[in-house]
């Protein structure tokens, strides 16, 4: 074998080894990223999850608001990325406890009984005004001593939560997307999809509750979302029976 042929063979072998090492490295990084995502959502390969959806308060019995459908589609894509499966149930048909399956619960307590139960059981520091009569506080959130009023199309709020209970050992969380309007439900799901890696780095598989503000949804839809605060401590601390909000937040 001449020196030229030997050099060509060695070059081909070196290129093959480099390509194989590069493929192995990319595969390892991809799998590590997938495992972290699966751990965050509590969705190992071929696991089952539950999508609990509200029903339109003013529509027929089985109606689901358009933006809530969009929210479900975004969550379904996240679940599929984890190689998991989802079952969709209306809020009044989801009768099960915690820990068996990861749950994604969409909609405010006025139209989602399951959400109302979760807020009462898991977030005793949160109150939502569900009065049917028009008033400045209709739909407002109270988190601790702070009140957040809704101005439809201008300033709206949503709570995004990842909650675990003792029965699940942290492996099968409940995700809450509790918005003041249907479009803010979708905004919360989109925020989670876009910021999942950052949230994973910050919180891992622990509990968190974030207060989000959706800005000018009349013009920007669910896309312009600001993080107001991490309200985990306030949301999990029971309110006194006579607790009144100290401040009200509304559009400036």
What do these coordinates show?
Keywords: Membrane, Transmembrane, Transmembrane helix. The chain crosses the membrane at residues 6-29. With 252 residues, this protein is an alpha/beta fold. The chain is built from 6 helices and 11 strands. Helix 2 (66-81) links the parallel strand 1 and strand 2 (85-90). The mean pLDDT is 83.
> Helical segment tally?
6
What are the low-pLDDT stretches, counting only 5+ consecutive residues below 50? none
Broad shape: elongated
Q: Element order, helices and strands?
A: HEHEEHEEEEEHEHEHE
Helix content range of the residues, please?
A: 25-40%
In order across it, which strands form the biggest sheet? 2-1-3-8-7-9-10
- In what range is the share of β-strand residues? 15-25%
Rounded to an integer in angstroms, the radius of gyration calculated over CA atoms is 23 Å
Q: What structural class results from the helix and strand content? A: alpha/beta
**Biggest β-sheet description:** 7 strands, mixed
Our measurement of the CA-to-CA distance between the termini, rounded to an integer number of angstroms, reads 81 Å
Topology:
Elements: H1 3-41, E1 48-53, H2 66-81, E2 85-90, E3 102-106, H3 113-122, E4 126-128, E5 141-143, E6 146-148, E7 155-163, E8 174-179, H4 182-203, E9 208-215, H5 217-220, E10 225-230, H6 232-236, E11 247-249
Parallel strand pairs: 1-2, 1-3, 3-8, 6-11
Antiparallel strand pairs: 4-5, 5-6, 7-8, 7-9, 9-10
